[in-house]
Amino acid sequence: MGFSEAVRVCLRKYVTFSGRAKRPEYWYFVLFMFLGGLIFGVFDYVLFGGTIETTSTSSEAISSSGPLNSIFNLAVLLPSLAVGWRRMHDTGRSGLFLFFPLIVMVCVGAYLAIWGGLAHLVTGNFGAFFVDGLGGIVAIAALILFILSPLIVLFWLIQPSQPSDNEYGPAA
To answer: Could you state, in chain order, the average pLDDT of each consecutive group of 10 residues for the chain (172 residues)?
Structure first.
């Protein structure tokens, strides 16, 4: 499957969350979203202006408030979720595994809010955050899981397809 065919398939299956998606289909669509975001970001900058900020380390950042990139991102939001969902199916996992980082983020935030550690982090009082014994240890473990969760999902997405039929559909 080539780049243009993968993009066509993903856009044709705009909100199809059933079935399976091979690695090339998913990663070519991710490349399409990256390139589209880059191109529309440049168009936004050219058409609507923007600012170029230079930091003390001589690095530059371009920011634009144009609508084209936002419209593009909204247009590809559902197809990107659908192809990610189907990619998880292709590796034998439920599509809900795609939301693992979001679930971890909500759980860590809820734990920190209930435990009271969120106030320490927001105010920058890191010493008080780590002093609370077991609560601090659990918070540190949760924050490590929060940092690792996107990498875990990335690992699942790069796994090879299941060669045989699975509960989500036949092997292509």
So the answer is: 91 91 93 92 82 67 76 94 94 91 88 70 69 71 88 92 85 72
128: tokens are 């008080």
Residues 25 and 49 reside in one and the same domain: yes
Is the Cα torsion angle 63, 77, 101, 26 positive or negative in sign?
negative
d(Cα 38, Cα 46) in Å, to the nearest integer? Answer: 12
The burial of 29, by beta-carbon neighbours within 10 Å (0-12 exposed, 13-18 middle, 19 or more buried), is given as buried
Residue spans of beta strands (DSSP E) within 47-141:
51-54, 60-63
Contacts of 125 (CB under 8 A, 6+ apart): none
With contact defined as beta carbons under 8 Å apart, do 122 and 60 qualify? no
Same domain, 16 and 40: yes
Count of domains forming the chain: 2
In which domain, by residue range, is 31 found? 1-90
Q: Which of 71, 90, 109 is the C-terminal boundary of a domain?
A: 90
Task: Report yes or no on whether pTM surpasses 0.85.
Answer: no
